Here is the input.
Amino acid sequence: MSEYLNDVNGLVIRTIDLQDNDRLLVLFTERYGKVTVYARGSRILKSKHMASSQQFCFSNFSLYKKGDRYWIKEAEPIESFYPLRENLQKMALASYICEVISDVVMEEQADVELLRLTLNSLYAIAKGTIPFVKIKGAFEIRAASILGFMPNVACCNRCAKSSTAYFLDVMNGTILCERCHEEDEALHSKGPLNEYEATHARIICVLPEEVRFAVEYAVTADLKHLLSFPLSAENEHFFAIAGEQYLLNHLERGFKTLDFYKEVNR
Ligand SMILES: [Zn+2]
Here is the structure.
């Protein structure tokens, strides 16, 4: 990357305070993917970078390179997502989303769809009118899909028939209807069917039809309307489990901020 990066729109996904009031920022940028930058004196209240260098702030940056580091020359906030900082539950969910993004986004690898998903999710959390269970689950399913783990949940993977409930095989990203699932369970009761199954856990999540639809919708919907799917209170729990199991198992890791989010909600 060049000595000067101008007109860089980026979301602050992580901040680390350094000596002398300097701060290290990890940005998820539109054009360059993940970029680590240094902000001089950004923790001093009168610093002109103060607002733009806070976590969750989406800003327009001008950067310059000194040595092997990028520093902030100018920064203009575009969207501060201020309400994320005034409520612990909102902050915890936004932090989880940013930790996931920080883990999956690479340097010099732009992903506009993933950035839009992240910004839209933060916007919905900040606004606070849509249940968090929908925002979190839709983010998890869609993020996994963008990262190459798109599930196929249109119909039963074996008989293609419709059913009132389905069973999602997380690692295969496919679903079975109740009848095919029962047959499958009978087969598996005798032991693993192949070498892969002998060394990997089968992770199965129950998807009532409404939740199957919600998952399919989260995979395919235009990001602008990503949260416009129905989800009744009795099915929230199934959607929450499916989203979380799907993302975490495909990324093969857990997140400290997710544990914190759960603690806050307890
Ligand atoms: Zn079937």
